Automatic annotation (TrEMBL):
Pathway: Nitrogen metabolism; (S)-allantoin degradation; allantoate from (S)-allantoin: step 1/1. The lineage of its organism: Eukaryota, Metazoa, Ecdysozoa, Arthropoda, Crustacea. This is allantoinase. Residues 69-447 form the Amidohydrolase-related domain. One of its GO terms (cellular component) is cytoplasm. The keyword Transmembrane helix does not apply. Coiled coil: none annotated. PANTHER family: ALLANTOINASE. Belongs to the metallo-dependent hydrolases superfamily. Allantoinase family. Its cofactor is Zn(2+). Homotetramer. The keyword Zinc applies. Keywords: Hydrolase, Metal-binding, Zinc. It catalyses: (S)-allantoin + H2O = allantoate + H(+). It comes from Daphnia magna.
Length: 468
């Protein structure tokens, strides 16, 4: 199919024998108009075959055959870093990478930009930076830091989807960690609001191993020992206690330590309003395979061993882990200490925004992951976390016509040339993955088609509906 531009007010039908609907996969025809899904019909519906709808208006039909038509991916954990650190990443480069990967909505994290999204004034500055610069739709998280409790409700009224906090140093001075007393205040302020608090759940404790040998900085094991799993377990134990007490929806970001899964499962069984995510790097990479000086593998919390990875997969497939996100957090090569390979000094972050779908499919399908599972973990549950599920994350009447059309049987090789985020340093370079994104559709518009961006100008919008 050649790249084409579809007028937003046109009636366009996307047909496939494998459409991922909320109740399962079916042969179907998805009818779109004005950026929304207006009907879901049978693949062989006679009116669609004739190019007319029930009102006898002409329609365009795009027959995708056996390609999979899934809801567009909603990545609810992306560090765009603009304004202030746009040389790390930016709205234009990040959202182009998203579109190329079938991601139709991202939710931007509040830190690493300067200023961080911790006040209404700061949010408006970020909103201005993003305006007219996004190739997919973008929503925003706010931040909780010491002393900004009076800004939380005003930020909700401006449209942030919830609040991220760090229970340990974040790595940037302008986003300090929240102590337990800061969290208590935030929970109290947000008790009567419809929002979510997101936790980077690591706490500093005496179990962290300190090493001083000369070989350690370039050997991954030294970094791994410096952030043991108990840091996550104890942090999550505290989050569950606070969430149980105040009943404010809480969410654990980027879970890497499987030892915490039983705690989370029991909390859910007890009715504690808590959810949890993990990331492709924890599900597809293991500590045993990290080469010496390969700082592109560094992230916080760290990639752990293969036995831990197997338990994360079990937690995902049994539903204890709710969703999978990229935690896309790039940095320039000098900050990744590429020349020295120093794991202790390198910036911690993995670049994978464009690759989430093929990564999860490649490694998950052999374990029994279905198309429906994939859409639940990557689209519906991520949209629900960000309170966007009334318009994003599923193929149903009234939803935005956001789709990823992909071939699960076609392989791609990850190369710097095919990546569209700013810095091409990634632990996935050279990997062969299953699942090629053929087309990305944003609110009824084809924005990416067969390795080509259809529009020169960004077509995304900023999602900032007020919450209280």
């Amino acid at each position: 199919m050649e790249p084409s531009i579809v007028k937003s007010d046109s009636i366009v039908v996307f047909k496939s024998h494998r459409v991922v609907l909320p109740h399962g996969v079916a042969s179907a025809a998805v009818v779109t108009k004005n950026g929304q899904i207006v009907a879901v019909k049978g693949y062989d519906d006679s009116r669609i075959a004739l190019g007319i709808n029930d009102e006898y208006q002409p329609i365009s039909v795009i027959d995708l055959g056996n390609l999979v038509l899934s809801p567009g991916v909603v990545d609810s954990h992306v560090h765009v870093n603009e304004p202030g650190r746009t040389h790390w990443e930016g709205f234009t480069t990040a959202t182009r990478a998203a579109a190329a990967g079938g991601v139709t909505t991202i939710v931007d994290m509040p830190l690493n930009s300067i200023p961080p999204t911790t006040t209404k004034e700061n949010f408006l500055e970020k909103f201005t930076a993003a305006s007219d610069n996004v190739f997919v739709d973008v929503a925003f998280w706010g931040g909780i830091i010491p002393g900004n409790q009076d800004e939380l409700i005003p930020l909700l009224r401006e449209g942030v989807r919830g609040f991220k906090c760090f229970m340990c140093p974040s790595g940037v001075d302008e986003f300090p960690q929240a102590k337990e007393e800061d969290l208590e205040i935030a929970f109290q302020r947000l008790q009567n609001s419809s929002t979510t608090i997101l936790f980077h759940a690591e706490v500093e404790c005496c179990s962290a191993v300190s090493t001083n040998t000369e070989e350690i900085p370039s050997v991954y094991q030294g970094f791994l020992q410096s952030r043991p799993g108990v840091m996550e377990v104890e942090a999550i134990r505290l989050v569950i206690e606070l969430c149980r007490r105040y009943r404010v929806q809480s969410h654990i970001v980027h879970l890497s330590c499987a030892e915490a899964i039983p705690l989370i499962a029991q909390a859910k069984k007890d009715g504690v309003p808590i959810t949890v995510e993990t990331c492709p790097h924890y599900l597809t990479l293991s500590a045993e395979e990290v080469p010496v000086k390969a700082t592109q593998f560094k992230c916080c919390p760290p990639i752990r061993d293969k036995s831990n990875q197997d338990l994360l997969w079990s937690g995902l497939l049994d539903g204890t882990i709710d969703l999978v996100v990229s935690d896309h957090s790039p940095a320039p090569q000098d900050l990744k200490c590429v020349d020295t390979g120093d794991f202790m000094k390198a910036w911690g972050g993995i670049s994978s925004l464009q690759l989430v779908l093929p990564l999860l499919w490649t490694f998950g399908h052999p374990k029994g992951l279905s198309f429906t599972d994939l859409s639940r973990f990557l689209s519906y549950n991520t949209a629900k976390l960000a309170r966007l599920h009334h318009r994003k994350g599923s193929i149903a009447v009234g939803m935005d016509a956001d789709f990823v059309i992909w071939n699960p049987d076609e392989q791609i090789t990850v190369t710097p040339e095919m990546l569209h985020f700013r810095h091409k340093l990634s632990p996935y370079l050279g990997k062969v993955l299953n699942g090629r994104v053929v087309m990305t559709v944003l609110r009824g518009q084809i924005v990416f088609n067969n390795e080509t961006f259809v529009f020169d100008k960004p077509q995304g919008i900023l999602l900032a509906e007020p919450l209280e």
